[in-house]
Amino acid sequence: MDYEDFVKTVITNLGSQITPALKNCASDIEKDANDFLQATKKDMEKWTKDLAGGKLAKDDFDTLVKGKSDLAIMRYLKKKGITEIEVEKITNSLISTVISTGFSLIP
Amino acid sequence: MNNSLQGPIAINKKRIAIVLLATLTLVLSGCVSTPAYDQTEYDRVITLKVDAVNLLQKASEDFQTHKTDVDNIKHEMSVLYEYAKNLPNNEEEIKMIQIMNNSDGTLLGKALADWEKKGTLSQSYSEGLISNISDGFDQISGLISHRIKK
Prior knowledge:
Helix content of chain A: over 70%
Order of helices and strands of chain B: HHHHHH
Order of helices and strands of chain A: HHHH
Helix content of chain B: over 70%
Oligomer: heterodimer
Largest interface: A-B, 39 and 45 residues
Number of helices of chain A: 4
Largest sheet of chain A: none
Largest sheet of chain B: none
């Protein structure tokens, strides 16, 4: 499997985990994951070189590569959590506005 | 005649407005409730990251020499998990800790399990693990740092 195939596989796996509530921003999430995986290319090249040079065992190489996939999922989870926090911030702001506006209208 | 009706009508309008306000506030406040920002939890994650990285920098040395430190890290991860598990609507952080802690996975849990199993880890492997594990802890602390101070 070359690196581009690896990226495609991770994006496909990630896509299946995106919850219905976040389907609207699925393309953003997939783009973030793709950018992240492209940024990890340097690590992948080093590990491939170390594997070929005998500095890295095959199973250790597998763990490191699969680790990038787990990190892509963790980035998605962070983004999902932050989205919920932002919704709560907007809701809190709305509550304050409703209360202050509402009471100012009461005779 | 008009004057005699204005009083009750005004009171009724006021009551309706208060009831509507209270209902709307209740509905909105029930929408989402994420965990509050907790400085202690944030500090715990940062300390764990630093301790884990420092420990794995010694993974080319014999595991038994560092067994106590490894046990301490495992204990701190358990404390973090138990704390996170009891926070409301905290599925994302819980999943992230599980990924980090999984001994059959790819990050901290796996690193410690492999070190114990193999006795020592190669420099290339431990460097790669450190890079991935640091990034993983950054994702957890990144989520916690966004939380609202309540």
